[in-house]
Amino acid sequence: MKRLAAITASVILSATFATAASANDDVTPIELNLDEPIVKAVDAIIAPNPIDLLEKTFFYDNPNGNQWGAISPQEVQLSGRVIDDWVEIYTWLGTAWIYYPNYVFTYN
After folding, report:
1. What confidence tens digit (pLDDT) does each residue in 3-36 have?
2. Please, are residues 90 and 104 in contact by the beta-carbon 8 Å criterion?
3. What share of the chain is helix, strand, coil (3-state, %, to 5)?
4. How, if at all, do strands 94-99 and 57-60 pair?
5. Torsion angle, CA of 86/90/94/99, rounded to 10 degrees?
6. Closest to 69 measured CA to CA, from 43, 98, 32
7. For residues 35-60, b (16+ Cβ closer than 10 Å) or e, as one string?
8. β-pair type (94-99, 67-71)
9. CB 64 within 8 Å of CB 87
10. Minimal CA–CA distance to 97: which of 86, 81, 106?
């Protein structure tokens, strides 16, 4: 029991000394310039509307690439990249490509 009390006391003292040694009294606050917006309109990215897949759709690592798997009918979010009839979507594996002929981006 004395050994446990000694170990506990040494841990508490070590934590106290570490906190005191790492404290910095020379902290100066940052002045914010709120005269202009932090995020400008040119910095904003507008994502295209999602696609509703109506049937089982295979997805690939690249356009005309290796098949990674299939997605059941659902709404999928788009990354905004299109190459010919291939549209890049977000999946649980990261981004992937689906073949979606004649797709045209729409935005709200």
Report:
1. 767 677 676 767 666 665 555 667 788 777 777 6
2. no
3. 20, 30, 50
4. antiparallel
5. -20
6. 98
7. eeeeeeeeeeeeebeebebeeebebb
8. unpaired
9. no
10. 86
